[in-house]
Amino acid sequence: MRILLGVTAGIAAYKVPFLIRLLVKQGAEVRCVMTPDARDFVSPLVLSTLSNHPVAIEFWNKETGAWNNHVALAEWADLLVICPCTANTLSKMASGACDNLLLAIFLSMRNKTILFPAMDLEMYRHPTVQRNMDQLEQDGSIIVPAEYGELASGLSGQGRLPEPETLLEYILGVVASKRDFLGKNVVVTAGPTYEAIDPVRFIGNHASGKMGLALAERLAERGADVLLVLGPSKCSVSHPKIKVCSVVSAEEMWNEVKNNWDSMDFGFFAAAVADYQPERASQHKIKKSAGESMALTLVKTPDILAWAGKHKKEHQRIIGFALETQNGEVNAKEKLHTKKADYMVLNVPVENESGFNAETNKVCIFGKDDRLWDIPLMQKREVANAILNVITNTQ
Ligand code: CTP
């Protein structure tokens, strides 16, 4: 869950550091954007320390030369939360004004925006403010009404920002609107496997683990309890609903899947598992003096997906991933049937835009009964959501 937290110049901004801590504890990645005047109410240093990211304030930082790209920030976010949202920012947003970074991000957002207006009671009930909130709601933003209570002015009435725990509940409620994997146990294999030749050398491949990780994160956000069996990978993941089990070889990956398979509802086999391993790994480093040439005898590794297909129970669903350099469709369909998968996701090569280390991916999904879903080139995290949508819509 990637949350862009917009902070505007209201006294209630003092609650934002607490909110960031709660969000981070939930496994969210948080980035803050402030309007310039918001700095008078809460320190950017506090927000950047708690969110672990620099705070974006201006389009252009004249001292460092850094450019905050509003489009990239908007694309990054699953959710834009503006908290607190002042009458001034509401008015600018309702009219489409764009004179600061936060407003430009708001206009660039494709995902949802939640607004937490907070101000003094007369301001809050002023017809122009009410009209702006109605307009923004009509335009698709989610407006969380301010609470009644004691206000910074000393007056009492509606205008108060909810306490951080309540803000968190609202945000999680919006994120959780799609909880179609709630209560499901899912195993995801990801990354490459390394098959040892000797203590310092191995047979491996270029898989990064990004696609499997994106799947694990989306599944967890949609309610699943995920066991991520991850081969050697630079990627890291932290989400309370993802248990990471790091492995090295195909054999180790297979053992983890076997030991946990009975309790699973779904298996996503996104790992690029080595097909062969050296028949015997040398105990000691093989020396150059061994000869002018050398032959390595390789034997097949266990096919983890095929094993799961063979041991699949009625309620279990299996999703495989095929990487082909030729005859993609024919081979993917064949793998779907021979490995007894329910879906086979074929990676479709798009120059520089898809494959191991790219952030984007283009896939086709093959289902049983010759069904086909063609998913356009998208960010891997969106591809993961599209795959999950296909599965839940065709159960
Ligand atoms: N797979 C697996 N265990 C293996 C090999 C593959 O679980 N030992 C799984 C992969 O995780 C993937 C699917 O099988 O979900 C297809 O992998 P792929 O490498 O495309 O196919 P292979 O079966 O290895 O066949 P080939 O390499 O000949 O294309």
Concise account of the structure shown:
By secondary structure, the protein is α/β, with parallel strands linked by helices.
Distinctive features:
395 residues, 25% strand, Rossmann fold, eight-stranded mixed sheet, binds cytidine-5'-triphosphate, 13 helices, alpha/beta, five-stranded parallel sheet, 19 strands, 2 domains
Kindly describe this structure.
By secondary structure, the chain is α/β, with parallel strands linked by helices. It has two domains: 2-175, Flavin prenyltransferase-like (Rossmann fold); 185-280 and 295-393, CoaB-like (Rossmann fold). Helix content is 32%, strand content 25%. The protein has helices at residues 16-25, 44-51, 70-76, 87-95, 101-108, 121-125, 127-138, 164-175, 210-221, 250-260, 304-310, 328-338, 380-393, and strands at residues 2-7, 29-34, 79-85, 112-117, 142-143, 147-150, 156-160, 185-190, 195-198, 201-203, 225-230, 242-246, 266-269, 276-278, 298-300, 317-323, 343-347, 360-367, 372-379. The strands form five sheets. It has an eight-stranded mixed β-sheet, with helices on both faces. Strands 2-1-3-4-5 form a five-stranded parallel β-sheet, sandwiched between helices. Strands 6-7 form a two-stranded antiparallel sheet. The relative contact order is 0.09. Residues 189, 250, 269, 271, 273, 275, 301, 303-305, 320-323, 335 line the site of cytidine-5'-triphosphate.
